[in-house]
Amino acid sequence: MKRAIPNYLRMLPGDAKPRFKSANLEGKIRRASEVLKKCELCERKCGVNRNKEEPGFCKVGKELLVTSIFDHWGEEPFLVPSFTIFFWSCTFSCQFCQNWSISQRFEIPRKMKEKELAKVIDNCNCKNVNFVGGEPTPYLPFVLKTLKYVKKDIPVVWNSNFYMSKKSMNLLKGVVEVYLSDFKYGNDRCAERLSKVSNYFEVVSRNHLLAKKDSELVIRHLVLPSHVKCCTKPILDFIAKNFKDRVIVNVMQQYRPEYKAGEYPDISRSLTIEEFEEAVSYAEKLGLNFIR
Ligand code: SF4
Predict the structure, then answer these.
(1) What domains appear along the chain, each with residue ranges and CATH number?
(2) Is the Cβ atom of 46 under 6 angstroms away from ligand 1?
């Protein structure tokens, strides 16, 4: 099994500056503030004025809402320790979400200012800063503003469901060192049913192509019980066709029937060893550069 080391690993102290340091952050912040007035940061394109706290699907308004921040040792081995910032809420409603108390808004978040968050990042001692949630996309304007204040040379990891709009993809361009995607479904029917989101495959596959053009890409795929044929295999086929072994794929087996999974017979159980092995054998057969 091949395991390519992302270029990003060469960006340790003493090497090149992180990309966000030379990005036009001021211009991006201005454009992002415009998007907030009629929000289309993700492909739900709610069109609400977030500055006036009009609620869109994600219910995020004009403030940075953080649920936790810590040195994460559980990410992919080449990313740890990763300084992980968990934002409140999500643009999806995954019925099996493993992180549902944050994504589905059961936790009470802490309000933070961008300067305050930047200071926290400056004081960390990790390989990268990892923006996640829930989902970081609703917070993109605030993330850009935060980065403007960050003094530390620290690479940015964008850890996301990849349902960003094209405008958000443009705002991220030149800022992110590693896109860490969560590629869940191989078709729109499963996405609609299990995450309440439409046009999934077109949007998410498009964003994978854009992300790889811009920077390093690591793709996570959590294998769902009963979904190897309809989801895992089409996703792995897409990766093989478009990236071959030029991206790292993390085939994940840690599914647990969380949140509302009990209401869906197909996902109301754990993954079997046979299902996981079928997924891994398929990735191997396609010649993908995967970890498990
Ligand atoms: S980020 Fe939130 S408000 Fe904006 S389009 Fe997406 S779901 Fe709607």
Answers:
(1) 19-223 (3.20.20.70)
(2) yes
